[in-house]
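Protocol step 4 of 6: structure prediction from sequence.
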Amino acid sequence: MSITHGLPPMRQAERGRDERGETPRPPLDRVVAVVEDALPPNPVTAEQLPAMRAGLADSAEAALDGLDGLTHTEATVPTADGAEVTLSVFRIGAGVGPAIMWIHGGGMITGNRFSGVRPYLEQILKHGGTLVTPEYRLAPENPAPIPVEDCYAAYAWAFEHAADLGFDPQRFILAGSSAGGCLAAGVALLARDRKAPQAAGVLLECPMLDDRNDSTSIRQYDVASGWCAQSNEFGWTALLGAARGTDDVSPYDAPARATWLGGLPPIHISVGSADPFRDEDVDFATGIWRDGGDCELHVLPGGVHGFEAYAPTGSLTAAVLRSRDQWIDRILNPDDPDLAYDGLPALVRLLTGRDVDAEGGRQFLESLRKSR
């Protein structure tokens, strides 16, 4: 027996479609929306590529502006195919500290080693130590596996020269954004499978991981003012050629293809809810957890691809920078008791209503242990 209450049958929309049959999108953060709404759709084309590369030619001088105390030198690193890539090395002080290897983004087709590096130079100022960033060769002139092998060569070189570069190899973070996040994930997989030294952690900003270009979030952003499905297809095709989307793609080039994500270092992933890469990034984090790994995932509501550049002073940017900063602190300082107990004051407040500092949190935890 069914009860209809005299109502007409409800029309069920197709998954991923609204009642008009259109693909809806998550709402944008209000600060991001101001910029996003002012920009026209602009998918990347081959004709645009020279101008894009010229416009994204960042410099060491600009990256270092106002960051006193950092030195910059260059090294030449041999690659797997007998070529060489340039590696920039930034250092502060003469002691031994941590290290960060930064891999720039740019859809595999543009950008240089100074693109997006400044926040990580600021981390080196904070923690001391060394930052290295490679000038990996770009597609389509240099197709897969050249970009990831270039980055792996720089990674291996850095570990081999840790003493000369002034860093502790146990405190090494591998980081990258967008295409650089893809390459960082690929390097981490290569290091695992080649039994090479492991990074202490891997930080991936809105990583570009899946060449198949067919997720829900990709379809939501077929065309957009920022990176979109059409641009993504262009970038992946530049890297992989006719292999894109087939079974002939290596997980080192497109890490979403990896069937086993265990055995990796702790990973931090951040992505906006309005980013075409949202679903592949969430799936990658899920795969890490499935295979027993450690991943901290942040999906920022209303964030588009690379929203930090759109809204550098917005609350969304502040939130993601804070999460990265706290994660880097924990990875680089695993034995710091204050970082190990940094969540206890909030727990004490929740359970007792009292405000305490980190020491008070430790005392509260110890009292709980004794009462068991």
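Step 5 (inspection) to follow. The chain has 15 helices and eight strands.
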